[in-house]
Design brief:
- With 174 residues, the protein is α+β, with helices and mostly antiparallel strands.
- 27% of the residues lie in helices and 29% in strands.
- It is built from five helices and seven strands.
- The chain has a seven-stranded mixed sheet.
- Helix 4 links the parallel strand 4 and strand 5.
- It is globular, with a radius of gyration of 16 Å.
Length: 174
C-alpha cells in the first residue's frame, strides 16, 4: 500500500457483522435513493460467495485519549468497499462508500488498492465496476486509478439512471 499523507490516520480491516448498521447508514448518506442499497441488497452483496468487505476506520491508537473524546463505532468507520471475484477470475467492485468528512483523505484510494491486491492474489485478470453516468466525482476517481469506460447500461439503477461500466486490467507484480 502507498503511504498517503492523510490528515485523518486510518487503518483498513476486514468486515465484522457488528459493522453492518454503520455501513448501511454510510451508504444511505453517500448515494441518492434509487442508487443507495436497501438493507437486504447490501447484506446480499456482502454475503456473496467469493466476496469480501473492507472497512477503513480511524486509527484510535494515534489519539491522545485525555484530550479528545472517544468516537463511537459509527464515527470511527470512515468508509468501506464491497467486492467479489467471479468464477471467471474477474474482480467486481460492488461499491466504495466514503463518509463526507473523510473524502480527499485517500480512504477510497487505499480501499481500492487493497481490493486490487486481493484480486491479484486470487489470480483475477481484470476488475469491473459500475457507476452512475452523472457521478462525475466517482468517474474522475476511477479514471485516476486506471479504470476505463467500456460500455453504458441503460436504466441500470432503480431510479432510471444509466450506469457506466468501467474496467481495469491487472498485471501481476510477481
Amino acid at each position: 500500500m502507498h503511504n498517503w499523507k492523510a490528515t485523518v490516520p486510518f487503518t483498513i480491516r476486514d468486515y465484522r457483522a457488528s459493522d453492518f448498521e454503520a455501513l448501511w447508514k454510510i451508504d444511505q448518506a453517500c448515494f441518492a435513493p434509487g442508487i443507495s442499497y436497501t438493507r437486504w441488497e447490501l447484506q446480499t452483496y456482502m454475503g456473496r460467495s467469493g466476496g469480501f468487505t473492507l472497512i477503513a476506520e480511524t486509527d484510535e491508537r494515534g489519539k491522545e485519549s485525555a484530550q479528545e473524546p472517544s468516537q463511537s463505532k459509527e464515527e470511527r468507520i470512515l468508509g468501506f468497499l464491497v467486492a467479489e471475484s467471479t468464477r471467471r477470475r474477474r474482480g467486481h467492485i460492488i461499491t466504495i462508500d466514503v463518509r463526507l468528512v473523510a473524502r480527499r483523505q485517500h480512504v477510497g484510494s487505499e480501499l481500492l488498492e487493497l481490493a486490487e491486491e486481493r484480486f491479484l492474489a486470487q489470480a483475477c485478470g481484470a476488475i469491473q465496476l459500475e457507476t452512475a453516468v452523472d457521478n462525475t466525482g466517482a468517474l474522475s476517481f476511477y479514471k485516476r486509478h486506471g479504470y476505463n469506460v467500456i460500455k453504458t447500461v441503460p436504466r441500470y439503477y432503480a431510479n432510471g439512471v444509466d450506469a457506466l461500466v468501467l474496467e481495469k486490467h491487472l498485471r501481476s507484480r510477481f
